[in-house]
Amino acid sequence: MMKKIYLTVISLAFLLASCNKWLDINPELEIRNDDMYSMEQGFMDVLTGAYIRMATPSLYGCNTTVRLPELMANHWSVASTSTGTVEDYVTRFDFTQSSTKSLLETIWLQYYQVIVNLNALLAEIEDKKDLFTDGNYELIKGEALGLRAFLHFEVLRYWGETPQNIAMEKIAIPYVTQVTKNPNSLLSLSYREVFEKILADLNEAETLLANDPITLYNNDALNHPEYEGTTAAEAAYPSNDFHFYRQIKFNYYAVKATKARYYLWLGDTRTAARYAREVIDAVNEDGTPKFKLADEPEASNGKMTFPTEHIFAVHNSNATSTLTSYFFNYQTMYTQNISSLQTAYETSLHTSDIRFKDERLWEERYEPLVSQPQNYFRKYYENETTAVKQMPLIRLSEMYFIAVENGDTDLFRTYRIARNLDASIDGTLTDQNAIMARLELEYRKDFYGEGQMFFFYKRLGYTSYTWPTVKTVESASYRLAVTGTQTKLPDF
Fold first, then answer.
1. In this model, does residue 165 exceed pLDDT 70?
2. Residue 183 has pLDDT above 70, yes or no
3. Which of 213, 174, 195, 244 is CA-nearest to residue 22?
4. How far apart, in whole angstroms, are the C-alpha atoms of residue 444 and residue 467?
5. Cα 308 from chain centroid?
């Protein structure tokens, strides 16, 4: 009988009956491993499939970038009457409603679907090591392990406790490393075990990805395979087509950056800053920076996602059809009022901020039959009908912020100059409280629409937001599943 791999086999036997859909991933897709994994290309295809699923609207194509975390961070004012909508409930951290439960279930399931697909690949790759050429065994396995760690960490950041309230022996989330139908092998683990497994996967990924093409070639070359062979500098381009476009793959520097996030979440700011500096200080063979802070020339070209800063992004081929309705339909769009944005971007002080000047990030205009101007969010748009396709998940500026939080304030000046912020703020970072107050402002400005502001609030255990209006946030609200009337993780 032909052997088969089941890619969607997680059961929820370990959850309470009231939560029995949270890991109920139906066996809807079966891939025959004697076909899929009989050649190198099959492994490449499975890995590519994981990235494609990550880029769908259910995850980073919408829900876990511009929607769920941004609503929880109070970034959107939905244009139409929103009472009783998902947006209304999520903004109020009300996950008792059927619509919000459904949103969370969708996100949870999609995270674990990707993880199970990665596990299927990892279960096969050791026995098929001889199939691989040109370093692809290390590349594919390293990416899969790194992604598995990254995705579990994302689940933990959403559904886990705020770092201040973590009891390491308390049950956290499932860390799934197997392809199995046996629910007894999929029990949730303690926080300590989950953190240990995340780090173990990241460490192994870092070793495997030591010769990642991104460490050998410059990103401009890797993003333009069409130029290969057109110049005398053949060494500037890899010979293997699979080695291009590393910024939309979980590359070597994505591992380092995830470690920076990981240690910051644990409160080890010194180690976090060390990994952040490794990314910041990475250079090409000619000494130029591997990743470059976006500045006026890049912003003036309308590239508001700042591609030169992308350490890890997803390619969202459906960005236009997905996002247009959120940002360019004045009746239902996600927006923010102009006066609040002027406060957020400190427009009276920073008159030339590359993000806010010339309506680059926000465009104010009147619509027919609408008395007040509408404010359109433009980060993901080349124009109102065409969206950019690279949605960043980790950017260089975050690494700067992590290093600055550890006291490396010289880096803040570098960041400030790139963003055209007024020099008067250079001398204001006089103590840790001042640093954190400034970072709150800069996280909001830089990551609007990317989902990182919520994690800033949660990591630091903010009990209230002060922008755009004062809003009290209970600690329990930061945990996203529901039992009774409070938001909390289901008991496993």
1. yes
2. no
3. 174
4. 10
5. 16
What's the start-to-end Cα distance of the chain, in Å? 37
77 burial (CB, 10 Å; 0-12 / 13-18 / 19+) is: middle
pLDDT, one tens digit per residue, over 285-311 is: 999 999 999 999 999 998 999 999 999
Q: pLDDT of 229-282, one tens digit each? A: 655 455 689 999 999 999 999 999 999 999 999 999 999 999 999 999 999 999
- Whether pLDDT at 24 is above 60: no
Q: Mean pLDDT across the chain, nearest whole number?
A: 88
